[in-house]
């Protein structure tokens, strides 16, 4: 059975964060609010938990799971290096709706799917998500919906799709307009936007010092 915690109430929020942290450490799945859409998350370093996440969504390893972090500094331990372009984007847009794809650190023992040696990283701008991430460390987090269905903008919508495959639902209220994060690939010499979303091309281009059209 899954449990829903109303994070608008301080007592319920505290209990929910504790329950979610325990669930993640035990290899379970949790649903958490973010600044884009609701996410379904697991311990990024627990391959069985990540496999359970993919199964709950009804998708395979061909679509790797992104990783959410609770601080800028966490990134340094997860990637091979942090180029200047990545630093500039992190300083400009994190926490927020920008995901950055970089070569992962070769020493990491995780299985996020068919990543081809890369990792998709983001720091969300949501206090509940940040509190959980700072408690448990990096989490593999994907949108809280079954594959092929609309992303969830409320905990209720997430539960309708995912049910008891998730141990804990953290209800942070409506996420607003469900806009996915923008994804920027920095694994090559030329930055490239893989998905347009919450952060606009012009804003990215200003920070990177490039023409917006070159990012497409």
Describe the structure.
The model has no long low-confidence stretch (mean pLDDT 95). The chain contains six helices and ten strands. It is an alpha/beta fold. The N and C termini lie far apart (44 Å). The longest helix is centred in the N-terminal third of the chain and has 16 residues, at 10-25. A hairpin with a 6-residue loop joins β9 (182-185) and β10 (192-195). It has one domain (3-215): DHBP synthase (Alpha-Beta Complex). Strands 1-8-2-3-7-4-6-5-9-10 form a ten-stranded mixed β-sheet, sandwiched between helices.
Based on the coordinates given, report the CATH architecture: Alpha-Beta Complex
Following the backbone from N to C, one meets helices and strands in this order, namely: EHEEHEHEEHEHEEEH
- Please bin the fraction of helical residues: 25-40%
Count of distinct structural domains: 1
Number of helices: 6
Number of strands: 10
Distance between the termini: 44 Å
Which class of secondary structure composition applies to the elements?
Answer: alpha/beta
EC number: 2.7.7.87
InterPro entries: DHBP_synth_RibB-like_a/b_dom (IPR017945), Sua5-like_dom (IPR006070), TC-AMP_synthase_SUA5 (IPR050156)
GO biological process, one term: tRNA processing
Subcellular location: Cytoplasm
Please outline what is shown here.
By secondary structure, the protein is an alpha/beta fold.
């Amino acid at each position: 059975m899954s449990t829903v915690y109303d994070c608008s109430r301080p007592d319920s929020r505290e209990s929910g964060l504790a329950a979610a942290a325990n669930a993640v450490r035990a290899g379970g799945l949790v649903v958490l609010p973010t600044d884009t859409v609701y996410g379904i998350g697991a311990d990024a370093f627990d391959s069985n938990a990540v496999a359970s996440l993919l199964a709950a969504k009804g998708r395979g390893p061909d679509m790797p799971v992104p990783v959410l972090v609770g601080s800028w500094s966490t990134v340094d331990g997860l990637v091979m290096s942090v180029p200047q372009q990545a630093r500039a984007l992190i300083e400009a847009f994190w926490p927020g709706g920008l995901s950055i794809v970089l070569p992962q650190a070769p020493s990491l023992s995780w299985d996020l799917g068919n990543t081809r040696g890369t990792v998709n990283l983001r720091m969300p701008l949501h206090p509940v998500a940040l509190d959980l991430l700072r408690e448990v460390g990096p989490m593999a987090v994907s949108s809280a919906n079954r594959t092929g269905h609309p992303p969830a903008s409320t905990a209720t919508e997430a539960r309708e799709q995912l049910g008891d495959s998730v141990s804990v639902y953290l209800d942070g209220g409506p996420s607003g307009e469900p806009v996915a994060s923008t994804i920027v690939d920095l694994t090559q010499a030329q930055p490239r936007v893989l998905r347009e979303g919450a952060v606009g091309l012009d804003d990215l281009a200003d920070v990177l010092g490039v023409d917006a059209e070159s990012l497409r």
